[in-house]
Write a sequence for this structure.
């Protein structure tokens, strides 16, 4: 999880720097997107490793909710 925090910090630094250098903002914002993508992939792999031995469905697997279409009321 420390790695994800550091990758997101890099993305934030790129976004903040782009505000100070408008002539290079397109490159810095693209780099920020790259760092965010790496952070998301790292987090996804971490969650998949944590749930590999459990009975929980993988992230994005909605097969267990396909049959329940009842609305939720408060």
């Amino acid at each position: 999880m420390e790695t994800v925090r550091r990758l997101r910090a890099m993305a934030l630094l790129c976004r903040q720097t782009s505000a100070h250098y408008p002539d290079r903002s397109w490159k810095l914002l693209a780099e920020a997107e790259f760092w965010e993508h790496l952070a998301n992939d790292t987090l996804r792999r971490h969650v998949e490793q944590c749930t590999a031995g459990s009975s929980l469905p993988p992230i994005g697997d909605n097969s267990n909710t396909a049959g329940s279409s009842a609305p939720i009321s408060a």
Observations:
- The longest helix spans residues 25-51.
- Helices lie at 2-20, 25-51.
- The chain has a mean pLDDT of 84.
- Residues 2-51 form one domain.
